[in-house]
Design brief:
Number of helices: 6
Shape: elongated
Distance between the termini: 65 Å
Number of domains: 3
Number of strands: 5
Largest sheet: 5 strands, antiparallel
Length: 239
């Protein structure tokens, strides 16, 4: 493949040099190129004036002018290629350039689609799991072939409370950053509760109150959820 492209470029360069060595053809092509550029500039100026008169919204005005500029540049390049190179060579060159551009543009999309299948079929995570990736913590609330959505947790808050923001992340991010997950085998994570005691407080009484409250909460709320999960129950009994 590389040899074919190299041979084609050699032939293309040879034909271009032959054209440049022919004075009449050389002058004609310069004249046609100049006419093409002048016409493009006139069209650009006329359409810009038309846009300025009819489009008052600054955002739309800018986008239309930018689109106009890109279209005119593309058309001028194509015309000049046809002028200076044989039509078939120009078509091949345009096709190669378009193919390379499409590959570059779709590279990120292809990576995202691959990431989607990796997440889905290798069970990296699913809806409802809380994950941390690239410094962002959140609950997975949606997935599609391009991205997944997290309901953000914590961030500027001191507790594991949702911030109310939905963050979209490309699926390809799993190839670049590690994913820390909660809720696969163990439905519980360790949390730290802090209480401030004054100097004249009895730390022994405070410790007893906290221990009694923790034991009550464990037996009433946590232990029932551990029933049926013998491995977790045995782990908890060790402590």
């Amino acid at each position: 493949m590389a040899k074919i492209i190299r041979d084609y470029l050699d032939i293309l360069t040879e034909n271009l040099l032959k054209t440049l060595n022919t004075p009449d053809a050389y002058l004609n092509k310069i004249a046609l190129s100049a006419v093409t550029l002048i016409i493009a500039l006139l069209i650009n100026a006329g359409l810009k004036n038309l846009i300025n008169k009819n489009v008052k919204n600054l955002g739309k005005n800018y986008k239309l002018k930018k689109a106009l500029k890109n279209i005119l540049i593309t058309v001028v390049v194509v015309f000049i290629l046809f002028i200076w190179i044989r039509a078939i060579n120009a078509l091949i060159l345009i096709a190669l350039a378009a193919g390379a551009l499409i590959v570059i543009m779709l590279r990120g999309l292809i990576h995202n689609i691959i990431g989607y299948f990796v997440i889905k079929y290798y069970k990296h995570f699913k809806k409802g799991h809380r994950i941390e990736i690239n410094g962002t913590i959140g609950d997975v609330i949606g997935m599609n072939p391009v991205s997944f959505q997290l309901l953000e947790v914590r961030n500027w808050l001191s507790s594991d409370t949702t911030t109310g923001r939905v963050i979209k992340m490309p699926n390809s991010i799993i190839f670049e950053h590690s994913v820390e997950m909660v809720g696969l085998d163990n439905e519980f994570i360790w949390q730290e509760i802090k209480y401030i005691l004054s100097f004249d407080s009895s730390w022994k009484d405070a410790e007893k109150i906290m221990t009694d409250a923790s034991n009550k909460h464990f037996h009433e709320s946590i232990l029932p959820n551990l029933r049926g999960n013998d491995r977790l129950l045995l782990t908890m009994k060790k402590y």
